[in-house]
Amino acid sequence: MKKDNETLDLAQILGTSEDAEGTTSGLAGRKVDLLQLGFWACLLLSIAAASVSLVRPHASGATGSILLITMASGGLVFLLWTVRGAGRFIGLFPEKGAAARIANAGAPRFPWIDALEEAVLVTDPGGAPVAANDAYGELASQTLITGPSESGPVTVDRLFGAIHGLTAPIYRLSKAAKAGIRRRELLPMVTLGPEQVPAQFEVTVAPLPRGRVLWRIRRIAGQLEATGAADMKSLYVEDAPMGFFAARPDGTITYANNFLREMLGLPETAKNVRLDDIMRPEFVKMLGRDRKTGAPGRADIQLRARDGVELPVTAITTWSGKGPDANGRTILLPSPQVLNGEGDRFALQGASRPVRPDGDPMFDDAPFGAVRLDGDRVDGAIILDANRALMELTGGRATPGSRFSDLFESDEEGPDAVAQALIHAVDKPVALKLAGAVSEDKVKHANVFVTLNANGRPSVAYVVDISEHRLLEHRLAHGEKMQAIGNIAGRIAHEINNMLQVTSGNCEFLMNRHPIGDPSYDNLKAIHESTVRSADLVRGLLAYAREQTFKREVFNTTDFLTHFSLLLRGAVDERITFEVNHGRDVPWIRADKGQLETAIINLVTNARDAMLSHRDGGKLTIRTSRSTGRDARAKGFDYVEDGEYLLIEVEDTGGGIPKELKDKIFHPFFTTKEKGSGTGLGLATVFGIIKQSGGYIEPVSAIGKGTNFHVYLPALPAAEIPQAVDPAIEQRAAQRPVDLSGRGRILVIEDEAGVRDIAVSVLRSRGYEVEEAEDGEEALEIINAKPGHFDLVISDVVMPGMNGPTLIKQAREKLAHARVIFISGYAEQELAKQLDDRAVSFLPKPFSVRQLSELVKREIGTPQQAAA
Fold this sequence. Notes:
There is one protein chain. By secondary structure, this protein is α+β, with helices and mostly antiparallel strands. The chain folds into seven domains: about 1-105, no CATH class; about 115-225, 2-Layer Sandwich (Beta-Lactamase); about 235-340, 2-Layer Sandwich (Beta-Lactamase), CATH 3.30.450.20; about 360-465, PAS domain (Beta-Lactamase), CATH 3.30.450.20; about 470-545, Helix Hairpins (Orthogonal Bundle); about 555-720, Histidine kinase-like ATPase, C-terminal domain (Heat Shock Protein 90); about 735-865, 3-Layer(aba) Sandwich (Rossmann fold), CATH 3.40.50. The chain contains 29 helices and 30 strands. Strands 14-13-18-17-16-15 form a six-stranded antiparallel β-sheet. It has a five-stranded antiparallel β-sheet with strand order 2-1-7-6-3, sandwiched between helices. A hairpin with a 6-residue loop joins β11 (about 310-320) and β12. The two termini are about 90 Å apart.
């Protein structure tokens, strides 16, 4: 660009000198004719004398007639001179176009533009052409496919304006020219002439003195650095008789020409191909060693084709740019030992695979492994040839001359296990592991099918990759196992909750009889605290099993997290910076607030421990925003269904989650903390709560950079968002009753005698009339015997024989308007939907005496309140 600016400045100087010296240069080109000058002088004198004699005849005397003759002669000479062409030359008898040539006779000629190699045009302020060099005329003949114009050069917009894609840049250049400012545009690639030759131009406009504008058109096609074009086919790289590819510093190949693709067996549509896919890691390092210097580097490397054969080549690499924006361009030349001597194109062949001039496409291009065998027995057969799919499947180990049995391993122990498996593979598929796996997670599985020829000898074997099928089977079995564990955990938790309910209920009774100061109070308090801890563990098991009771309600997440963050700040260490950022238009959700609080506080405490275990402090951020299933899938969460979601992100700056542990963090009792520091149920509980809420959770983590848990919860449709409620009404509704006594008839149904006795004892002490039943069948008999008698029914969900929901459905007519409270160690979701819209409440076990009393008070109150 500096050189271009210097040329423009020189052009301006030359343009100024042309304006100043245009007239003198035109005069200097003419020679003075003395004879012609004398002729004109005499003629003028004779005409003057004759004029005097005519005006004053007395003064002229006898010479008057002589003067008249002289004047006539002069007129005759002037007439002859005019007729012979002099008059026509000066315009006395002008022809068509003479006036325009006379008007332009004094204009500057700009002779210096002919010295420039690129096409140059000088225009006036209105855009009309003034002068152009020969290069511009040649370009016009190529672009317009016409000969030179007799009326002068054409404008630039006529030159390029009709070509699709060039209208916009030419318009910007014309606008800059009229404004008197400089501008440079790189035009897209175009084709010129009848042969459609590809070309690309750089056009520059710059102002000149006297309102003139200089247009410079420089052809730059073929200069890769200047074009910056991604279409390398138009630059003749695609069909070059040598390999070529472009790559980024991270090893991603952005382009490979046709020669290289054919050499490696890559389709034209191949994407996400990396350098380490086509060569060894040491060769990748050799190509990048001169990246910082920018100097061309030469290295002898080996390329790995899709069939596993390595091909020796010489690579010449140049790098341009810096950092992640750098671009590497590599030319691949044949090594001396692989040149075939036919022209410039070279053919590569591997020693491990014989060349077959008559290749069989059904064998070579089959989408599964195929191999030709030779030998008396299949377990000792030798490989004659293997197709590309098998070479790729075995990592290049299926080379001719090697034993076919060496490609496999058997799950069974013993040296003859593979041989016996191959014998059984004759005419039927047998599953085997492919040998050569570097780790357990890299093991490949295949079905092997061997066919025999007419002589009973092995001839062809087929190897079908079933690794993904085995992986799906493993995942299915693992999922079924985890589901079974969850069911068992739910059943066990139900029984444990019953026992904890008995323990906690009796403990509360004893603590009331032995208040603070009593010698037994401290022992009873220790029992109570241990019961609470046990209940938390059971609650975690239920969350993992997704069988805890949910009490869903509609609420605004922003308000919920704003108030809940006050509690979270107390759970976060002082050395950690804690922030809560709310997005715009955050959706409402329907969820259990208590369970959501449990999930978030588990994520927060887990993040806190992760940061403090790796460094002294960090930053914890909770963000909320509106998201969609499409947004989630764009982040790689392909399992998220379509719809609107609330996205809650819990991000920390801890040490991150190792890749090998990422699939285990949600398993129950799995923990990376020291022994005794964690139960391993924190993230398992979170996973169960989010899944039971209909949402998704996925961690995004990088070692040394921290972890970000993405929680997606279904957004509530706008039509279901409730209207604004008076805060005073909400506050009155949320107030807990102080007087827990009441009146009413209650039926308690519980199969666990200890739990039933506690509930009956508490309610009777509060003034209620209570009847009890130990199962559903007995309760149904009592209800049928006393229809409409009860104001409230308290029932366990899971009981031997008839369960709670079934009892309520069968006794619907006999219960009339009685309220229902379910008490349960675990329950199915949305039980209310099974009860014909009957209003029900839930009280999860283990519950306290006060919780039971408050809920009963809110449900039936007193008879006067019920009547009201």
